């Protein structure tokens, strides 16, 4: 997303008809260098990460109709349409990265309230756009 500092990680979102069938491809994903992480904190998602501590790719797989799909897309589209918010988010991320350089959980916790607020705004905004 423009104006947002981030690690150079490519996030890929995939929509499938049956999320349970994805587990049958875990070996193939491992052969491609991905770590199989299951739901990884989000119910009915399958998550794969590539690159270990130097992550390069994340694959998020959701079943069609999962509300996470529209939520992620609304957040992305809202931030693109509102560069002042993306700049604010970027500054927050930079400050948290400085404050918690080795504690990803504190970093994520620090973003949580802001992200929840933007998620609400993005959902309302996306209804009219």
Summarize the model shown.
The chain is built from 4 helices and 4 strands; from the N terminus they run E-H-E-E-E-H-H-H. With 129 residues, it is α+β, with helices and mostly antiparallel strands.
What does this structure look like?
The protein has 129 residues and is an alpha+beta fold. The protein folds into two domains: 10-65; 68-127, Beta Polymerase, domain 2. The protein has helices spanning 26-31, 67-81, 83-99, 104-127; strands at residues 10-16, 34-36, 45-50, 57-63. It has a four-stranded mixed beta sheet with strand order 1-4-3-2. A hairpin with an 8-residue loop joins β2 and β3 (45-50). α2 crosses α4 (104-127) and α3 runs antiparallel to α4. The longest helix is centred in the C-terminal third of the chain and has 24 residues, at 104-127. The mean pLDDT is 93. It comes from Halalkalibacter okhensis.
Give a quick set of tags describing it.
129 residues; alpha+beta; Beta Polymerase, domain 2; four-stranded mixed β-sheet; globular
CATH topology of the largest domain: Beta Polymerase, domain 2
Number of helices: 4
Order of helices and strands: EHEEEHHH
Oligomer: single chain
């Amino acid at each position: 997303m423009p104006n947002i500092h981030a690690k150079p990680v490519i996030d890929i979102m995939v929509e499938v008809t049956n999320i349970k069938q994805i587990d049958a491809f875990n070996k193939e994903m491992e052969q491609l260098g991905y770590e199989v992480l299951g739901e990884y904190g989000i119910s009915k998602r399958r998550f794969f990460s590539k690159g270990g501590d130097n992550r390069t790719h994340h694959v998020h797989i959701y079943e069609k109709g999962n509300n996470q799909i529209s939520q992620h897309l609304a957040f992305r589209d809202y931030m693109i349409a509102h560069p002042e918010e993306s700049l604010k988010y970027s500054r927050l991320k930079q400050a948290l990265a400085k404050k918690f350089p080795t504690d990803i959980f504190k970093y994520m916790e620090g973003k949580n309230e802001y992200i929840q607020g933007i998620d609400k705004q993005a959902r309302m905004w996306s209804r009219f756009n």
